[in-house]
Amino acid sequence: MYAQMIKSTGEGVKSLDDMEPDERAFQERINAGGKIEPKDWMPEGYRKNLIRQIGQHAHSEIVGQLPEGNWITRAPTLERKAILLAKVQDEAGHGLYLYCAAETLGVTRDQLTRDLLSGKMKYSSIFNYPTLTWADMGAVGWLVDGAAIMNQVPLQRTSYGPYARAMVRICKEESFHQRQGFDIMMKMAKGTEAQRKMAQDALNRFWYPSLMMFGPSDAESVHSAQSMAWKIKMNSNDELRQKFVDQTAPQAEYLGLTIPDENLKFNEETGHYEFSEPDWDEFFDVLKGNGPCNTERLEDRNRAWNEGRWVREGLLAHAEKKRKTAIAAE
Amino acid sequence: MSSPESSPYSDTDAAPHGKARATEWPLWEIFIRGQHGLSHRHVGSLHAADAESAIKNARDVYTRRNEGVSIWAVPASAIAASSPEEKGALYEPANDKVYRHPTFFDIPDEVGAM
Questions:
Q1: CB atoms B2 and A103 under 8 Å
Q2: Pick from A143, A57, A122: nearest CA to A95
Q3: Which of A25, A253, A318, B83 is 20 to 30 A removed from B24 (C-alpha atoms)?
Protein backbone atom coordinates (compact mmCIF):
# COMPACT_ATOMS: atom_id res chain seq x y z
CA MET A 1 0.00 0.00 0.00
CA TYR A 2 1.25 3.54 0.54
CA ALA A 3 3.05 1.87 3.43
CA GLN A 4 4.55 -1.44 2.34
CA MET A 5 6.51 -4.12 4.17
CA ILE A 6 6.40 -2.28 7.50
CA LYS A 7 8.39 -4.21 10.09
CA SER A 8 6.88 -4.62 13.52
CA THR A 9 8.61 -5.95 16.61
CA GLY A 10 8.97 -9.35 14.95
CA GLU A 11 8.32 -11.01 18.29
CA GLY A 12 4.81 -12.16 17.59
CA VAL A 13 1.64 -11.15 19.36
CA LYS A 14 1.65 -11.49 23.17
CA SER A 15 -1.40 -12.82 24.96
CA LEU A 16 -3.10 -10.49 27.45
CA ASP A 17 -1.92 -12.69 30.33
CA ASP A 18 1.72 -12.28 29.30
CA MET A 19 1.51 -8.48 29.40
CA GLU A 20 2.55 -6.09 32.14
CA PRO A 21 -0.38 -4.07 33.57
CA ASP A 22 0.32 -0.95 31.44
CA GLU A 23 0.49 -2.90 28.22
CA ARG A 24 -2.53 -4.97 29.10
CA ALA A 25 -4.63 -1.87 29.78
CA PHE A 26 -3.40 -0.43 26.48
CA GLN A 27 -4.30 -3.58 24.52
CA GLU A 28 -7.69 -3.90 26.21
CA ARG A 29 -8.50 -0.32 25.28
CA ILE A 30 -7.67 -1.08 21.64
CA ASN A 31 -9.69 -4.31 21.71
CA ALA A 32 -12.68 -2.33 22.98
CA GLY A 33 -12.39 0.06 20.03
CA GLY A 34 -10.85 2.91 22.06
CA LYS A 35 -8.38 5.42 20.67
CA ILE A 36 -4.79 5.94 21.78
CA GLU A 37 -3.83 9.61 22.02
CA PRO A 38 -0.33 11.16 21.90
CA LYS A 39 0.24 11.54 25.63
CA ASP A 40 -1.13 8.09 26.53
CA TRP A 41 1.18 5.29 27.54
CA MET A 42 2.07 3.08 24.58
CA PRO A 43 4.55 0.24 24.00
CA GLU A 44 7.76 1.40 22.34
CA GLY A 45 7.13 -1.07 19.50
CA TYR A 46 3.74 0.51 18.76
CA ARG A 47 5.29 3.97 18.65
CA LYS A 48 8.16 2.93 16.37
CA ASN A 49 5.96 0.88 14.08
CA LEU A 50 3.56 3.80 13.69
CA ILE A 51 6.35 6.28 12.96
CA ARG A 52 7.59 3.96 10.20
CA GLN A 53 4.12 3.42 8.80
CA ILE A 54 2.81 6.99 8.95
CA GLY A 55 6.18 8.32 7.78
CA GLN A 56 6.24 6.02 4.77
CA HIS A 57 2.65 6.92 4.01
CA ALA A 58 3.50 10.65 4.18
CA HIS A 59 6.56 10.20 1.97
CA SER A 60 4.39 8.38 -0.59
CA GLU A 61 2.01 11.33 -0.75
CA ILE A 62 4.91 13.73 -1.29
CA VAL A 63 6.82 11.64 -3.84
CA GLY A 64 3.48 10.76 -5.45
CA GLN A 65 3.22 14.36 -6.63
CA LEU A 66 6.12 13.83 -9.03
CA PRO A 67 4.63 11.41 -11.61
CA GLU A 68 1.54 13.63 -11.90
CA GLY A 69 3.41 16.91 -11.70
CA ASN A 70 5.06 15.67 -14.88
CA TRP A 71 1.82 16.36 -16.79
CA ILE A 72 0.61 19.66 -15.31
CA THR A 73 2.26 21.77 -18.01
CA ARG A 74 1.14 19.36 -20.72
CA ALA A 75 -2.49 18.78 -19.77
CA PRO A 76 -4.71 18.78 -22.88
CA THR A 77 -7.05 21.58 -21.74
CA LEU A 78 -7.01 24.41 -19.24
CA GLU A 79 -9.75 22.68 -17.25
CA ARG A 80 -7.78 19.41 -17.03
CA LYS A 81 -4.74 21.40 -16.01
CA ALA A 82 -6.59 23.17 -13.19
CA ILE A 83 -8.05 19.86 -11.97
CA LEU A 84 -4.66 18.10 -12.02
CA LEU A 85 -3.08 21.01 -10.21
CA ALA A 86 -5.75 20.80 -7.49
CA LYS A 87 -5.20 17.07 -7.21
CA VAL A 88 -1.44 17.38 -6.84
CA GLN A 89 -1.95 20.13 -4.26
CA ASP A 90 -4.19 17.73 -2.31
CA GLU A 91 -1.36 15.17 -2.28
CA ALA A 92 0.92 17.76 -0.71
CA GLY A 93 -1.80 18.40 1.88
CA HIS A 94 -2.15 14.68 2.60
CA GLY A 95 1.58 14.45 3.15
CA LEU A 96 1.40 17.33 5.63
CA TYR A 97 -1.57 15.87 7.59
CA LEU A 98 0.40 12.64 7.94
CA TYR A 99 3.69 14.29 8.96
CA CYS A 100 1.70 16.12 11.66
CA ALA A 101 0.32 12.80 12.89
CA ALA A 102 3.82 11.28 12.95
CA GLU A 103 5.15 14.31 14.84
CA THR A 104 2.78 13.62 17.73
CA LEU A 105 4.81 10.44 18.28
CA GLY A 106 7.94 12.44 19.06
CA VAL A 107 9.77 12.55 15.73
CA THR A 108 10.31 15.81 13.86
CA ARG A 109 9.22 16.40 10.29
CA ASP A 110 12.75 17.38 9.30
CA GLN A 111 14.07 14.10 10.65
CA LEU A 112 11.52 12.16 8.59
CA THR A 113 12.43 14.24 5.54
CA ARG A 114 16.13 13.54 6.04
CA ASP A 115 15.40 9.82 6.28
CA LEU A 116 13.47 9.97 3.01
CA LEU A 117 16.21 11.93 1.24
CA SER A 118 18.96 9.58 2.40
CA GLY A 119 16.95 6.55 1.26
CA LYS A 120 16.69 5.19 4.81
CA MET A 121 12.88 5.42 4.71
CA LYS A 122 10.86 4.20 1.74
CA TYR A 123 7.80 5.36 -0.14
CA SER A 124 5.32 3.26 -2.11
CA SER A 125 6.81 1.21 -4.97
CA ILE A 126 4.14 2.53 -7.36
CA PHE A 127 5.72 5.96 -7.66
CA ASN A 128 8.87 4.51 -9.19
CA TYR A 129 7.04 3.90 -12.46
CA PRO A 130 7.05 6.60 -15.15
CA THR A 131 3.97 8.43 -16.48
CA LEU A 132 4.52 8.30 -20.22
CA THR A 133 1.26 9.62 -21.71
CA TRP A 134 -1.75 11.71 -20.67
CA ALA A 135 -3.74 8.48 -20.29
CA ASP A 136 -1.42 7.63 -17.39
CA MET A 137 -3.06 10.49 -15.45
CA GLY A 138 -6.32 8.62 -15.90
CA ALA A 139 -4.81 5.27 -14.91
CA VAL A 140 -3.07 6.72 -11.85
CA GLY A 141 -6.26 8.33 -10.54
CA TRP A 142 -8.45 5.34 -11.32
CA LEU A 143 -6.10 2.50 -10.28
CA VAL A 144 -3.49 3.94 -7.93
CA ASP A 145 -5.83 6.18 -5.98
CA GLY A 146 -8.46 3.44 -6.18
CA ALA A 147 -6.04 0.98 -4.57
CA ALA A 148 -5.05 3.56 -1.97
CA ILE A 149 -8.69 4.15 -1.00
CA MET A 150 -9.12 0.40 -0.35
CA ASN A 151 -6.51 0.68 2.37
CA GLN A 152 -7.31 4.15 3.66
CA VAL A 153 -11.03 3.77 4.28
CA PRO A 154 -10.55 1.07 6.97
CA LEU A 155 -7.62 3.05 8.43
CA GLN A 156 -10.09 5.75 9.47
CA ARG A 157 -10.86 3.34 12.33
CA THR A 158 -7.21 2.79 13.26
CA SER A 159 -6.34 2.83 16.98
CA TYR A 160 -4.07 5.88 16.94
CA GLY A 161 -6.26 9.01 17.19
CA PRO A 162 -4.17 11.50 15.17
CA TYR A 163 -3.62 8.92 12.39
CA ALA A 164 -7.34 8.08 12.23
CA ARG A 165 -8.26 11.78 12.08
CA ALA A 166 -5.75 12.38 9.26
CA MET A 167 -7.26 9.46 7.35
CA VAL A 168 -10.77 10.88 7.69
CA ARG A 169 -9.65 14.10 6.01
CA ILE A 170 -7.69 12.23 3.36
CA CYS A 171 -10.54 9.88 2.45
CA LYS A 172 -12.91 12.81 1.95
CA GLU A 173 -10.56 14.22 -0.67
CA GLU A 174 -9.41 10.95 -2.21
CA SER A 175 -12.70 10.15 -3.88
CA PHE A 176 -12.32 13.29 -6.04
CA HIS A 177 -8.94 11.89 -7.14
CA GLN A 178 -10.27 8.53 -8.23
CA ARG A 179 -13.26 10.04 -10.03
CA GLN A 180 -11.14 12.52 -11.96
CA GLY A 181 -8.93 9.61 -13.08
CA PHE A 182 -11.89 7.53 -14.19
CA ASP A 183 -13.30 10.56 -16.01
CA ILE A 184 -10.07 10.84 -18.03
CA MET A 185 -10.21 7.10 -18.80
CA MET A 186 -13.86 7.35 -19.95
CA LYS A 187 -13.07 10.23 -22.25
CA MET A 188 -10.13 8.42 -23.81
CA ALA A 189 -11.67 4.95 -23.97
CA LYS A 190 -14.64 6.36 -25.83
CA GLY A 191 -12.57 8.74 -27.97
CA THR A 192 -10.64 8.14 -31.18
CA GLU A 193 -8.90 4.83 -31.89
CA ALA A 194 -5.55 6.41 -30.97
CA GLN A 195 -6.96 7.62 -27.63
CA ARG A 196 -8.47 4.22 -26.89
CA LYS A 197 -5.11 2.56 -27.56
CA MET A 198 -3.42 5.02 -25.27
CA ALA A 199 -5.90 4.23 -22.48
CA GLN A 200 -5.39 0.48 -22.98
CA ASP A 201 -1.62 0.94 -22.91
CA ALA A 202 -1.84 2.88 -19.62
CA LEU A 203 -3.98 0.12 -18.09
CA ASN A 204 -1.49 -2.51 -19.32
CA ARG A 205 1.42 -0.75 -17.64
CA PHE A 206 -0.30 0.20 -14.36
CA TRP A 207 -2.32 -2.96 -13.66
CA TYR A 208 0.34 -5.13 -12.04
CA PRO A 209 2.18 -2.30 -10.26
CA SER A 210 -1.22 -1.37 -8.75
CA LEU A 211 -1.72 -4.93 -7.50
CA MET A 212 1.78 -4.77 -6.00
CA MET A 213 0.79 -1.73 -3.95
CA PHE A 214 -0.95 -4.04 -1.46
CA GLY A 215 2.31 -5.91 -0.85
CA PRO A 216 2.91 -9.66 -1.04
CA SER A 217 0.66 -12.05 0.86
CA ASP A 218 1.09 -11.46 4.58
CA ALA A 219 -1.03 -14.35 5.81
CA GLU A 220 2.08 -15.77 7.52
CA SER A 221 3.72 -12.49 8.58
CA VAL A 222 4.37 -11.93 12.30
CA HIS A 223 4.76 -8.21 11.57
CA SER A 224 1.27 -7.99 10.11
CA ALA A 225 -0.20 -10.07 12.94
CA GLN A 226 1.18 -7.60 15.47
CA SER A 227 0.03 -4.59 13.45
CA MET A 228 -3.44 -6.07 13.20
CA ALA A 229 -3.58 -6.73 16.94
CA TRP A 230 -2.68 -3.07 17.47
CA LYS A 231 -5.27 -2.03 14.86
CA ILE A 232 -2.81 -0.04 12.82
CA LYS A 233 -3.42 -2.48 9.99
CA MET A 234 -7.04 -3.38 9.49
CA ASN A 235 -7.08 -5.99 6.69
CA SER A 236 -4.67 -8.49 5.20
CA ASN A 237 -2.92 -7.62 1.94
CA ASP A 238 -4.68 -10.42 0.06
CA GLU A 239 -8.08 -9.35 1.33
CA LEU A 240 -7.60 -5.77 0.09
CA ARG A 241 -6.14 -6.88 -3.24
CA GLN A 242 -9.15 -9.13 -3.85
CA LYS A 243 -11.51 -6.30 -3.01
CA PHE A 244 -9.65 -4.03 -5.42
CA VAL A 245 -9.83 -6.54 -8.29
CA ASP A 246 -13.52 -7.22 -7.60
CA GLN A 247 -14.25 -3.53 -7.80
CA THR A 248 -12.01 -2.69 -10.75
CA ALA A 249 -12.70 -5.54 -13.19
CA PRO A 250 -16.32 -4.47 -13.95
CA GLN A 251 -15.14 -0.85 -14.30
CA ALA A 252 -12.60 -1.91 -16.94
CA GLU A 253 -15.38 -3.76 -18.72
CA TYR A 254 -17.52 -0.63 -18.67
CA LEU A 255 -14.65 1.27 -20.28
CA GLY A 256 -14.30 -1.43 -22.95
CA LEU A 257 -10.69 -1.99 -21.91
CA THR A 258 -9.01 -5.34 -21.27
CA ILE A 259 -7.20 -6.08 -18.04
CA PRO A 260 -3.85 -7.62 -19.08
CA ASP A 261 -4.44 -10.96 -17.35
CA GLU A 262 -5.52 -14.08 -19.27
CA ASN A 263 -6.48 -15.75 -16.02
CA LEU A 264 -8.88 -13.06 -14.91
CA LYS A 265 -12.37 -14.51 -14.59
CA PHE A 266 -15.36 -14.22 -12.33
CA ASN A 267 -15.97 -17.24 -10.12
CA GLU A 268 -19.73 -17.63 -9.67
CA GLU A 269 -19.28 -19.87 -6.66
CA THR A 270 -17.08 -17.58 -4.58
CA GLY A 271 -18.53 -14.36 -5.96
CA HIS A 272 -14.99 -13.10 -6.53
CA TYR A 273 -12.64 -12.65 -9.48
CA GLU A 274 -9.71 -15.01 -9.96
CA PHE A 275 -6.56 -13.27 -11.14
CA SER A 276 -2.79 -13.69 -11.63
CA GLU A 277 -0.31 -12.57 -9.00
CA PRO A 278 2.06 -9.78 -10.01
CA ASP A 279 5.77 -10.50 -10.44
CA TRP A 280 7.01 -10.30 -6.85
CA ASP A 281 10.67 -10.36 -7.92
CA GLU A 282 10.02 -7.10 -9.72
CA PHE A 283 8.35 -5.69 -6.60
CA PHE A 284 11.33 -6.46 -4.37
CA ASP A 285 13.69 -5.13 -6.99
CA VAL A 286 11.79 -1.81 -7.16
CA LEU A 287 11.79 -1.58 -3.34
CA LYS A 288 15.55 -2.12 -3.38
CA GLY A 289 15.92 0.93 -5.60
CA ASN A 290 16.07 -0.62 -9.04
CA GLY A 291 12.72 0.53 -10.45
CA PRO A 292 12.58 2.67 -13.60
CA CYS A 293 12.39 5.98 -11.69
CA ASN A 294 13.85 5.43 -8.18
CA THR A 295 16.97 7.49 -8.85
CA GLU A 296 15.09 10.31 -10.55
CA ARG A 297 12.49 10.57 -7.75
CA LEU A 298 15.07 10.79 -4.98
CA GLU A 299 17.18 13.24 -6.97
CA ASP A 300 14.12 15.45 -7.48
CA ARG A 301 13.26 15.42 -3.77
CA ASN A 302 16.86 16.13 -2.78
CA ARG A 303 17.10 18.99 -5.25
CA ALA A 304 13.84 20.52 -3.98
CA TRP A 305 15.08 20.27 -0.38
CA ASN A 306 18.52 21.71 -1.11
CA GLU A 307 17.32 24.50 -3.36
CA GLY A 308 14.61 25.45 -0.85
CA ARG A 309 17.08 25.83 1.96
CA TRP A 310 17.62 29.59 1.52
CA VAL A 311 13.85 30.11 1.65
CA ARG A 312 13.49 28.15 4.88
CA GLU A 313 16.40 29.97 6.50
CA GLY A 314 15.44 33.36 5.09
CA LEU A 315 11.89 33.26 6.43
CA LEU A 316 13.14 32.13 9.81
CA ALA A 317 15.68 34.98 9.93
CA HIS A 318 12.99 37.46 8.89
CA ALA A 319 10.61 36.21 11.60
CA GLU A 320 13.38 36.52 14.19
CA LYS A 321 14.17 40.07 13.06
CA LYS A 322 10.50 41.08 13.28
CA ARG A 323 10.25 39.55 16.74
CA LYS A 324 13.29 41.51 17.96
CA THR A 325 12.00 44.75 16.43
CA ALA A 326 8.66 44.24 18.16
CA ILE A 327 10.37 43.66 21.51
CA ALA A 328 12.57 46.74 21.04
CA ALA A 329 9.50 48.88 20.28
CA GLU A 330 7.74 47.85 23.51
CA MET B 1 -2.88 15.71 12.51
CA SER B 2 -1.80 16.50 15.94
CA SER B 3 -4.02 17.63 18.73
CA PRO B 4 -3.40 20.27 21.39
CA GLU B 5 -2.17 17.66 23.81
CA SER B 6 0.20 16.43 21.17
CA SER B 7 3.15 18.70 21.25
CA PRO B 8 5.97 16.54 22.56
CA TYR B 9 8.42 19.43 22.40
CA SER B 10 9.62 21.54 25.22
CA ASP B 11 9.21 25.27 24.97
CA THR B 12 12.82 25.78 23.91
CA ASP B 13 12.63 23.12 21.23
CA ALA B 14 9.64 24.72 19.57
CA ALA B 15 11.08 28.23 19.78
CA PRO B 16 12.46 29.60 16.52
CA HIS B 17 16.10 29.02 17.38
CA GLY B 18 15.89 26.14 19.81
CA LYS B 19 19.00 23.99 19.55
CA ALA B 20 17.25 20.72 18.80
CA ARG B 21 15.52 22.07 15.74
CA ALA B 22 17.80 24.88 14.70
CA THR B 23 16.56 25.02 11.13
CA GLU B 24 12.99 23.79 11.48
CA TRP B 25 10.10 26.22 11.46
CA PRO B 26 8.10 26.22 14.71
CA LEU B 27 4.96 24.12 15.06
CA TRP B 28 1.54 25.82 15.12
CA GLU B 29 -1.81 24.31 16.05
CA ILE B 30 -4.58 25.40 13.71
CA PHE B 31 -8.22 26.12 14.63
CA ILE B 32 -10.89 26.84 12.03
CA ARG B 33 -14.38 28.27 12.39
CA GLY B 34 -16.83 26.98 9.78
CA GLN B 35 -19.60 28.93 8.12
CA HIS B 36 -22.47 27.85 10.30
CA GLY B 37 -21.80 29.68 13.52
CA LEU B 38 -20.00 26.90 15.41
CA SER B 39 -16.90 27.79 17.40
CA HIS B 40 -13.33 27.35 16.19
CA ARG B 41 -12.34 23.70 16.03
CA HIS B 42 -8.89 22.16 16.11
CA VAL B 43 -8.07 20.75 12.66
CA GLY B 44 -4.38 19.93 12.85
CA SER B 45 -0.98 21.51 12.93
CA LEU B 46 1.66 22.84 10.57
CA HIS B 47 5.08 24.46 10.49
CA ALA B 48 5.60 28.14 9.71
CA ALA B 49 8.25 30.75 10.39
CA ASP B 50 5.81 33.26 11.92
CA ALA B 51 2.14 33.88 12.68
CA GLU B 52 1.43 35.55 9.36
CA SER B 53 2.77 32.67 7.29
CA ALA B 54 1.12 30.16 9.67
CA ILE B 55 -2.25 31.62 8.69
CA LYS B 56 -1.38 31.61 4.99
CA ASN B 57 -0.20 28.00 5.20
CA ALA B 58 -3.32 27.03 7.16
CA ARG B 59 -5.41 28.51 4.36
CA ASP B 60 -3.65 26.20 1.86
CA VAL B 61 -3.49 23.09 4.02
CA TYR B 62 -6.84 23.15 5.82
CA THR B 63 -9.35 25.23 3.83
CA ARG B 64 -8.97 24.08 0.21
CA ARG B 65 -12.69 23.26 0.09
CA ASN B 66 -14.30 26.21 1.88
CA GLU B 67 -14.02 24.54 5.27
CA GLY B 68 -13.89 27.80 7.14
CA VAL B 69 -14.26 31.54 7.41
CA SER B 70 -11.83 32.20 10.25
CA ILE B 71 -8.43 30.77 11.20
CA TRP B 72 -6.59 30.81 14.53
CA ALA B 73 -2.90 29.82 14.59
CA VAL B 74 -1.45 29.13 18.04
CA PRO B 75 2.19 28.25 18.76
CA ALA B 76 2.12 24.60 19.87
CA SER B 77 4.54 25.44 22.66
CA ALA B 78 1.99 27.91 24.13
CA ILE B 79 -0.69 25.28 24.70
CA ALA B 80 -1.17 23.88 28.18
CA ALA B 81 -2.83 20.48 28.18
CA SER B 82 -4.21 18.16 30.83
CA SER B 83 -2.43 14.83 31.04
CA PRO B 84 -4.08 11.41 30.75
CA GLU B 85 -3.01 10.48 34.32
CA GLU B 86 -5.20 13.27 35.69
CA LYS B 87 -8.27 11.88 33.99
CA GLY B 88 -9.75 10.39 37.13
CA ALA B 89 -9.17 13.39 39.35
CA LEU B 90 -10.51 15.80 36.74
CA TYR B 91 -13.59 14.07 35.41
CA GLU B 92 -14.77 11.52 37.95
CA PRO B 93 -16.41 14.11 40.25
CA ALA B 94 -19.00 14.68 37.50
CA ASN B 95 -19.99 11.01 37.39
CA ASP B 96 -22.16 11.01 40.52
CA LYS B 97 -24.00 14.21 39.66
CA VAL B 98 -26.57 12.71 37.36
CA TYR B 99 -29.08 15.38 38.41
CA ARG B 100 -27.20 17.75 36.10
CA HIS B 101 -28.88 16.02 33.17
CA PRO B 102 -32.49 17.04 32.43
CA THR B 103 -33.51 13.40 32.00
CA PHE B 104 -33.00 12.93 35.77
CA PHE B 105 -36.36 14.56 36.42
CA ASP B 106 -39.69 12.93 35.57
CA ILE B 107 -42.17 15.49 34.34
CA PRO B 108 -45.77 14.23 33.90
CA ASP B 109 -46.98 14.04 30.28
CA GLU B 110 -49.90 16.40 30.94
CA VAL B 111 -47.45 19.20 31.73
CA GLY B 112 -46.36 19.20 28.09
CA ALA B 113 -42.96 19.94 26.58
CA MET B 114 -40.37 21.29 29.00
A1: yes
A2: A57
A3: B83
